[in-house]
């Protein structure tokens, strides 16, 4: 075999080397335990709701951390629907907020929602709410 | 002399192009994602004592069904939940009705209160009904998870 032909074949094998490249599989973000927060200015008769996904069965806690000005609000947890702020509430409490969770609920894996709503106490200037949701 | 050197290289490159061409024309198969359970929302109202209503859904592949009475609220206190127990049943449509084959009386929660296994592909229904506690109209929401 002539040297030039050998050189050509070597070039050929080198060019085809890309077949040995490693394919990278597409990755899907994994759902997992987490903490979601929500800060919102809520208008009179309004609501501030956030949807979240529990990756496994477990306990969810919902905390109305603060309201400004200080106000008693409804705080609830439920499933996405057409009721309060797009959330069909399962459990609700009336609270002015604090550092300890006001709601603790057992859930299956799935999508849920939680948030605050006006019970007729919010003035025309609205209320600033901060909510924390901890889920499995 | 020059041609004698170049010709084999051109031949080799032609072979190379042909050899590599095969992989370029291969068909790429998109990764498939297994479909999970389907979740449906059944929202409704019970107006008075003894009232009931139902919702039909289709099981596409054999599997389990779980039913969660997730919300019961009254129209008099919008947004506020109540723990009023309701009847929740699972069965099959019959004419314009829902024939319940399993049922429970339960208050609202976020874990399933009624489950069944080995449902064959077919149409099924969930019935929500008052068990004698209703004094004011209520709104409810039920989550149905099935295959």
Question: Could you please describe the fold and organization of this structure?
Answer:
- The complex is a heterodimer of chains A (136) and B (147).
- Chain A is mostly beta strands.
- Chain A has a single domain (34-135), classed as Jelly Rolls (Sandwich).
- In chain A, 10% of the residues lie in helices and 49% in strands.
- Chain A contains one helix and eight strands.
- Chain A has one helix at residues 3-15; strands at 34-42, 47-54, 58-68, 73-80, 87-95, 103-107, 110-117, 127-135.
- In chain A, the strands form two sheets. Chain A has a four-stranded antiparallel sheet with strand order 1-8-3-6, with no helix packed on it. In chain A, strands 2-7-4-5 form a four-stranded antiparallel sheet, with no helix packed on it.
- Chain A is globular.
- Chain B contains one helix and eight strands.
- Chain B is 16% helix and 48% strand.
- In chain B, the strands form two sheets. A four-stranded antiparallel sheet of chain B has the order 1-8-3-6, with no helix packed on it. In chain B, strands 2-7-4-5 form a four-stranded antiparallel sheet, with no helix packed on it.
- Chain B has one domain (38-146): Jelly Rolls, CATH 2.60.120.
- Chain B is globular.
- Chain B has 147 residues and is of the alpha+beta class.
- In chain B, a hairpin with a 2-residue loop joins strand 4 (86-94) and strand 5 (97-106).
- Chains A and B meet through helix 1, strand 4, strand 5, strand 6 and strand 7 of A and helix 1, strand 1, strand 3 and strand 8 of B.
């Amino acid at each position: 075999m002539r040297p030039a032909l050998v050189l050509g074949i070597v070039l050929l094998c080198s060019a085809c080397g890309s077949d040995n490249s490693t394919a990278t599989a597409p990755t899907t973000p994994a759902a997992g335990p987490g903490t979601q927060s929500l800060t919102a200015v809520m208008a009179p008769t309004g609501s501030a709701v956030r949807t979240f996904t529990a990756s496994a069965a477990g306990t969810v806690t919902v905390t109305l951390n603060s309201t400004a000005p200080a106000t008693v609000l409804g705080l609830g947890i439920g499933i996405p629907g057409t009721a309060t702020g797009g959330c069909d509430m399962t459990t609700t409490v009336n609270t002015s907020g604090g550092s300890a969770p006001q709601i603790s609920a057992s859930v299956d894996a799935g999508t849920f929602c939680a948030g605050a709503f006006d019970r007729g106490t919010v003035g025309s200037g609205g209320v600033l709410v901060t909510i924390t949701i901890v889920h499995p | 002399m020059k041609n004698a050197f170049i010709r084999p290289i051109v031949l080799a490159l032609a072979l190379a192009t042909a050899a590599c061409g095969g992989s370029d024309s291969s068909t790429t198969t998109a990764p498939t994602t297994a479909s999970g359970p389907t979740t449906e929302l059944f929202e409704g109202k019970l107006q008075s004592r003894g009232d009931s209503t139902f919702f039909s859904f289709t099981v596409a592949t054999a599997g389990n069904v779980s039913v969660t009475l997730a919300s019961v609220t009254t129209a008099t206190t919008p947004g506020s939940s109540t723990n009023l127990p309701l009847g929740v049943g699972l069965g099959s449509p019959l004419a314009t009705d829902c024939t319940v084959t399993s049922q429970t009386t339960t208050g609202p929660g976020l874990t399933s209160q009624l489950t069944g296994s080995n449902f064959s592909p077919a149409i099924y229904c969930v019935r929500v009904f008052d068990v004698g506690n209703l004094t004011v109209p209520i709104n409810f929401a039920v989550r149905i998870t099935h295959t």
